[in-house]
Amino acid sequence: MRQICVFLVVTLLTSCEYFNVKKTSSEAILNEELQTFNWNDVDEYPTFSSCDSLSTKQEKKQCFTDVLTDHIFKYLQSEIIIVTKDVNDTIDLKFQVSKEGAIVLLETKVDSLTLQEIPNINDLLASSLDSLPEVFSAIKHGQQVTTEFKLPIIIGVN
User: Fold this and answer.
1) CA 110 → CA 54, 86, 121, 154, 156, distances in Å?
2) Stated pTM of the model
3) Which residues are CB-neighbours of 28 under 8 A, at least 6 positions away?
4) Which of 13, 67, 73, 145 has minimal CB crowding within 10 Å?
5) CA 54 – CA 62 distance, rounded (Å)
6) How far apart are CA 104 and CA 116, in angstroms?
7) Tens digit of pLDDT per residue, the chain (158 long)?
8) Maximum distance among all alpha carbons in the chain?
């Protein structure tokens, strides 16, 4: 009889663990939600006011890159660039648009021949951003966020 009582007491004590309710903190829930976000995608891409009339996300993204590319191209055309050899190159530019709407050139990948012929190309590209129209930052879950993107620019100088 004593063995049965000991067995029942041990069983009762171990079975009580099944009735414990685990509390989940708000931090744990937040961390779990943050893991499910796709941080590489935004709800709205950075944009210019001239792109506001477009409706889809992809159209606005294309408009932003077109306006930026056209602006840089026109700026470079207005500069006097003298070369001794023909330059035909694709320059990869890495930009950052801050959540305040400031656009900064982070990195340029330029061929060595292009750098040899146009040694100030990085300065020209950076200064072309100074006269850009107002940039509106990207939006993720209703908040303005900083984004980075790459943009190829084709340079042809004869």
Assistant:
1) 33, 15, 9, 11, 13
2) 0.70
3) none
4) 13
5) 10
6) 24
7) 778 777 777 776 666 555 555 656 666 666 666 565 555 678 888 999 898 888 888 899 899 999 999 998 899 888 888 878 888 888 899 989 999 989 998 999 988 888 888 888 889 888 988 888 899 998 888 889 899 989 898 887 77
8) 106
